Predict the structure.
Amino acid sequence: MFIPPRALQQQMRAAQQQEQAAVSLRTSHLVIPTAIADRIFGSTFNVHLVYYPQKRSLLIAGAENELFRQLHKSKQHLLKAGDAQGNRTIALHELLIDNGIPAEDRTLAYEAEDALGVLNVSL
């Protein structure tokens, strides 16, 4: 099958952009791309998170989201500036160990709920 060079380049760029926009686990840190972090958390650097082992679901919301904190009895974590691209990270060492979650680097499935200001990540 012949793929024209221009189409191949476009496919490669699209795949690279999708990879950069993926939430991932790297060295026991949750890495959230800038575009997603800005949309969900804005300029805050504190978040509340809660992990539900039955669903293998990690819910994260900005610290100013009082309703989320009250509903989920979440813990506050630091949302750090992770790298030169502006990605943000959250250290998950303790959560991974306490729940027996594998710590290998991988891309994670997620759902960004903009209207609620919540990021739902599957671990």
